[in-house]
Amino acid sequence: MTTEIDAIRSAVLEGAPGEEISSLALPEGVRGALVRADEQEMFAGVASEDKDPRTSIHVEDFPLPELAPDEAVIAVMASSINFNTVWTSIFEPLPTFGFLKRLGRESMWGARHDQPFHVIGSDASGVVVRVGSAVRNWKAGDNITVHCNYLDDQDPSAHDDSMLATNQRIWGFETNYGGLADLAIVKANQIMPKPAHLTWEEAAVNALCNSTSYRMIVSPNGSQMTQGQTVLVWGASGGIGAYACQYVLNGGGTPVGVVSSPQRAALLNELGVEAVIDRKAEGYRFWSDEHTQDPAEWLRLGKKIREVSGADPDIVFEHPGRSTMGASVFVAKRGGMIITCAATSGFNIEYDNRHLWMKLKTIKGCHFANYREAWEANRAICEGRVHPTLSKVYALPDVGEAAYQVHKNLVEGKVGVLCLAPEEGLGVTDGETRERLLPQITLFRRHAG
Length: 449
Ligand code: NAP
Hints:
The protein is an alpha/beta fold. It has helices at residues 4-13, 18-23, 53-56, 83-89, 97-106, 200-204, 207-217, 239-250, 262-271, 279-282, 295-309, 325-331, 353-357, 371-382, 399-407, 431-441, 443-448; strands at residues 29-36, 58-63, 71-81, 117-119, 124-131, 143-146, 149-150, 169-170, 183-187, 191-193, 230-233, 254-259, 275-278, 287-289, 292-293, 315-318, 337-340, 362-365, 390-395, 414-418. It is 32% helix and 21% strand. The strands form 5 sheets. Strands 3, 5, 6, 9, 10, 19 and 20 form a 7-stranded mixed sheet that branches.
């Protein structure tokens, strides 16, 4: 028997016209990766590193909600794992059900999100299946990717830089019905064109990390790097780091990439990053015990940066947080900027403030990207100026394992997840550009073996 979802998948794979796709029936229940409210205490007393996404993420059917006028239903061909997938699945720093409850109190449409399940995922590539009555720029049949800035466009605070909006949220993390599912619900102002030269899985992994790095490195809302600047990039072969390195190189800067293995150092060299520091080989111990940092180790890092790049960093691309922030503030150049979007190793940060004020440095917070920034970052991918960093692909039923790999720092770049796409390699409509850029597009995949 052909189910509604099979019919949608077949129509997309055959490149059916929009009218045909929009006339297909939507299923009542949709397969997706979710966590359950009644399990949010399951890891009580367990250390963060031992909390296992494979036990908390379930792949099962959930009821598809009614579509709001400013929304679209997307047939998700592929999605990706982000670190927020890990945070949701280990219920840290907070279970995400509180976010859904708050959204639920805001409006009738918001109430749909407050469920005893949370369908996760903040990236997607796919095809528009339905649009609400207020959607103007997109129609059924469009090949698209999705960025995760979810905002209330009737809120005045959303109309300068929308990341400053009071009710700004991350789709699939602070909202329900995210991308790790066969169908997803998105606002029309989250949609962007799919890069024609990429497969579904290559197109799915970029938006969240690529847009974040664009804002942090390129945008005036971030550090707005200029030509010739030196940028220290922590986790330089990771999700956001590998896009940051590409923006630094594109903008005529010198990235100094920090990684934790010779394989990752080699990968960065091939990406074009010449100055690389293997933090494991160097054996940095910025914290001599739980409460004490060692400035001699900061100094040792600073010397190494000068040795490999000839300069102190104008910008430090910071996200590990507690383990590195003291060092980051110390090594930044006089007048330099530490731009931070995360604190993976701990959010209670300590640094020596004398190094900040006496050397006139700035710490700047940064978070995802507004629609314009996400659009520009997507344009860089569409034009082949920035490349996906896809290293591994899982099928949706294995999403727990995929999240586990990211949680344990076992993968480089990005991990893709096939949703409706039955296999890898589909979705390319510009074979000529793909052929030309193939070595760059597949770099991370080749290194992963
Ligand atoms: P990822 O793919 O896991 O990469 C992070 C990299 O950081 C790792 O590859 C690792 O590289 C390095 N790292 C991990 N722990 C470290 C430590 N203690 N000291 C030094 N380096 C360490 O994750 P991601 O996608 O890049 O995300 C990184 C963080 O940014 C996460 O916390 C995520 O939630 C956050 N984030 C925030 C936003 C936002 O909008 N605010 C957007 C995207 C991501 P090596 O081991 O090779 O050094």
